[in-house]
Structures are given as structure tokens and as C-alpha cells.
Design a protein that fits this description.
Elements lengths: L1 H15 L2 H4 L2 E7 L12 E2 L5 E2 L2 E3 L4 E4 L2 E9 L4 E8 L9 E8 L6 E8 L11 H4 L2 E7 L6 E8 L7 E8 L7 E8 L4 E5 L2 E6 L9 E8 L13 E13 L12 E4 L7 E5 L8 E6 L4 E6 L4 E4 L7 E9 L2 E9 L4
Parallel strand pairs: 4-7
Antiparallel strand pairs: 1-17, 2-7, 3-4, 5-6, 6-7, 6-17, 7-16, 8-13, 8-17, 9-10, 9-16, 10-11, 11-12, 13-14, 14-15, 18-19, 19-22, 20-21, 20-23, 23-24
Length: 338
């Protein structure tokens, strides 16, 4: 009996060990939605009152209940309008690269669809074919009840107008419309890898963003999702948790290694960034913490720029330099003063 108990416990622990931790990732963001209200240090209601496809965002339709973020589709008979909800981390958390995961129980009816996605702050303002610099909408998952056992992983880039481009990746996943499932993307400097229940579903090198992006959780109305009728409301999607993992420092790679040098490294004083021939986009050099937070920003001073690190606590940091070829990422260590 004791041997059976040990074996059962081992199987349980293995099954619940995070795959991304074993791959060398550390947790940098999480919300288990175990509080009584939406944690506004992590999420903000997004575009309240805004028209979205065939409905409108309402702050009343996104709320925390029984350990879930619940986003509800409703119909108001007096105004004859459909309402959904949307929350995001644009004001609270943005990062580049990582493993983004959510546990979600999908809606039961047609006419509206939930999504767990990443968005770039600049995607709507540029009609330039450079997703590396201006970012990409990464739909980690969208679910249409009319498709029952299909989940969608989609990329959008070059804005939403005449220059818009996309790559759709629908995949059949048995029982995806029943109960909770985990949906994730592993975003690296060179590719996106999508997962459902820790099983890889899509791998693509298309339109890789190399800039900070933020998360959105949403439920929207539209005939694309099937029959749009008041009879299909109310209906809800349930988010059990959202977690973000960042690859450990020895796994972080620079996109460009021959045009930028950083020294001395490690340092306990200033650090010099030497730029040979990289053509910068905005003239800014930024320092990010391991948690993906921008802790300092400097204006490039030509081929050599001195960065003052005296206000940084000891630890690992990343220097971020946006160029026309893509983002250059260099790491350095701030030492304790002897």
C-alpha cells in the first residue's frame, strides 16, 4: 500500500510539474483569480463602452467569481445591443519573449468568442512590413462554438488596414469545448510554438515580434462566431489562471551579436554600449530587469554610450536596443560594490 501511495504521488507530481520550468523558465507573472475582485495592479478593464465587431465592451461583463475571471456575453433588450468584456495588461505588464499560459473553460453557445492574446502597442499605427519592430497580434487561442473541437492560433501584423497580413492556424483538439484546458505559446526571438494541454499544436517562424507586448483576455460578439441571437445570451468563458514564464538568463540570446558590445561585464559602475553599424529605430537604449520591467532608459550617444547603473540593485539585466534589423538584446550582471 505504501509503495502504491508513493507511486501515485510520483505520478501526480510529475503530471503537475510545469513543463516550462523543466525547460529552464522562471515564473514572472501570475494571477490565479482567487481574490474577490479583479486585481487592478495586474489587469485594467480595456476600452470600456467601445464598439467591438457586433457588440460593446462593458466593465460589468468581466469580473472575478469563485476562483475564475468570468467574462460574460449579454444582450440588452432595451438598447438592442450585445455586450462582452475585455481586460488587459497594457498599463501594468509588458514583456518580450516567454511562455504564456492560461487555463480556460470555453463558452457554450454561438455568436461570441473568447480569446487569450498578445498585442503590441504600435501595431495599429504603422503600415510597414516590419513585425519585428512594430509587433504582432498573437492569438494564443480563439474558440468558436460552431467549430466544436477546433481551436485557433492566429497571427496578425502590419496593422488592420489595407496592409494587414495574417496567418491562421486552426487545429482539431478533441473535447476542447468541454471543461478546462491549458492554452499556451512559447515566444522566442525566432519562432512561436503553440500548445494545448502541454502538447505542441503549431510551430511557426512567421512574423516574429521582437518588442514588448501585453496580454488581453476577451469575449466579443460577431457572426463570425456563428448565430448572433439574443437567445444565446447570457453565456460565459472562465479563466482559471494566467501565468507567464521567462527563460532563465543563460537561455537568452541576442538577435545580433557582431554589431554591439557591452563592457565591462560584470560591472559595479557604469557600463559601455558600443554600437558599430546597427541602425537604431528610436535612438533609445533601455535596461530591463529579469521580470521584464524597464528600469532605465538612455539616449544613444553615437558609437559609444555610457549607462549609469548606480541605482540598479545587484543582479542580471538585459540591454534592449531596437534596430531596423530587429531588436538587439544583450545581458549584463550588476555586481555588489566590494
Amino acid at each position: 500500500m505504501k509503495q502504491l501511495l508513493i507511486l501515485s504521488l510520483s505520478i501526480f507530481l510529475f503530471a503537475n510539474t510545469s513543463a516550462q520550468t523543466k525547460l529552464g523558465y522562471s515564473l514572472i507573472f501570475s494571477d490565479e483569480f482567487d481574490q474577490t475582485t479583479l486585481d487592478d495592479s495586474k489587469w485594467k478593464q480595456r476600452l470600456p463602452g467601445a464598439s467591438r465587431v457586433d457588440g460593446y465592451n462593458s466593465t460589468d461583463n468581466a469580473f472575478v467569481k469563485n476562483g475564475n475571471l468570468v467574462i460574460t456575453a449579454t444582450y440588452d433588450s432595451s438598447s438592442k445591443k450585445y455586450f462582452g468584456g475585455m481586460v488587459g495588461t497594457q498599463e501594468t505588464f509588458q514583456t518580450t519573449y516567454g511562455y504564456f499560459e492560461a487555463s480556460i473553460k470555453m463558452q457554450l453557445k454561438e455568436g461570441h468568442w473568447p480569446a487569450f492574446w498578445l498585442q503590441s502597442p504600435d501595431i495599429q499605427t504603422n503600415c510597414v512590413s516590419n513585425p519585428s519592430v512594430y509587433g504582432v497580434e498573437v492569438d494564443i487561442v480563439e474558440y468558436l462554438r460552431r467549430e466544436v473541437n477546433t481551436v485557433r492560433h492566429t497571427l496578425h501584423w502590419d496593422g488592420y488596414g489595407s496592409c494587414h497580413k495574417s496567418q491562421e492556424n486552426p487545429r482539431t483538439v478533441a473535447n476542447s469545448g468541454v471543461g478546462y484546458h491549458t492554452y499556451a505559446v512559447e515566444w522566442t526571438p525566432t519562432e512561436y510554438i503553440f500548445y494545448v494541454d502541454n502538447v505542441e499544436t503549431v510551430r511557426t517562424h512567421a512574423a516574429v515580434s521582437n518588442r514588448d507586448e501585453y496580454m488581453i483576455l476577451s469575449l466579443e460578439h460577431g457572426s463570425w462566431a456563428g448565430s448572433l441571437t439574443p437567445a444565446n445570451c447570457p453565456d460565459s468563458v472562465f479563466f482559471d489562471y494566467v501565468r507567464v514564464y521567462k527563460k532563465n538568463s543563460n537561455e537568452v540570446k541576442s538577435l545580433v551579436t557582431n554589431s554591439v558590445k557591452v563592457y565591462p561585464n560584470p560591472t559595479n559602475s557604469d557600463i559601455i554600449v558600443s554600437i558599430d553599424d546597427a541602425e537604431m529605430v528610436d535612438g533609445k537604449i533601455r535596461i530591463y530587469s529579469l521580470a521584464g520591467i524597464c528600469v532605465a532608459q538612455f539616449t544613444c550617444q553615437g558609437t559609444k554610450t555610457s549607462l549609469d547603473t548606480k541605482n540598479l540593485i545587484p543582479g542580471l539585466y538585459f540591454i534592449n536596443i531596437p534596430t531596423k534589423e530587429g531588436k538587439i538584446v544583450k545581458e549584463f550582471t550588476k555586481k555588489s560594490i566590494d
